[in-house]
Design a protein that fits this description.
The protein is mainly α. Helices cover 71% and strands 0% of the residues. The protein is built from seven helices and no strands. It starts with a helix and ends with a helix.
């Protein structure tokens, strides 16, 4: 594991390191990609690395891509968590959510998309 090797060599991973790994897992074609992203995100927090907007955007996108039944619910929870942690959502956050709603099969997708914009 790359993170272990870094630590063994005295190199401390930072938010950029974690974001890069989160993005790689999120874009992978692995069937367990979302699980890897979630686990790494939790590891990041447990190691005292505060997630930034980029990390949350990657996590939201990974959930949306997972096509799991509750994926959009989790993406909405992450948006709230982001705000509650004092991290301002940015244009990428909202575009990611809007794109995910557009691709979802939720009957209330348009209503949900309008709700996040107001």
């Amino acid at each position: 594991e790359l993170l272990s090797e870094m630590k063994n060599n005295g190199i401390q991973p930072n938010v950029v390191t974690y974001n890069t790994l989160l993005d790689a897992y999120g874009k992978s074609k692995r069937p367990d990609a979302i699980d890897c992203v979630v686990d790494l995100f939790e590891e990041m927090k447990s190691n005292g690395i505060k997630p930034n907007a980029v990390a949350y955007n990657i996590l939201i996108r990974a959930h949306a891509r997972s096509n799991r039944p509750q994926a959009m619910d989790r993406a909405e929870e992450l948006l709230s968590e982001m705000k509650n942690n004092g991290i301002q959502p940015n244009v990428v956050t909202y575009n990611t959510l809007l794109d995910a709603y557009g691709k979802s099969k939720r009957p209330d997708a348009i209503d949900c998309a309008e709700k996040i914009l107001h």
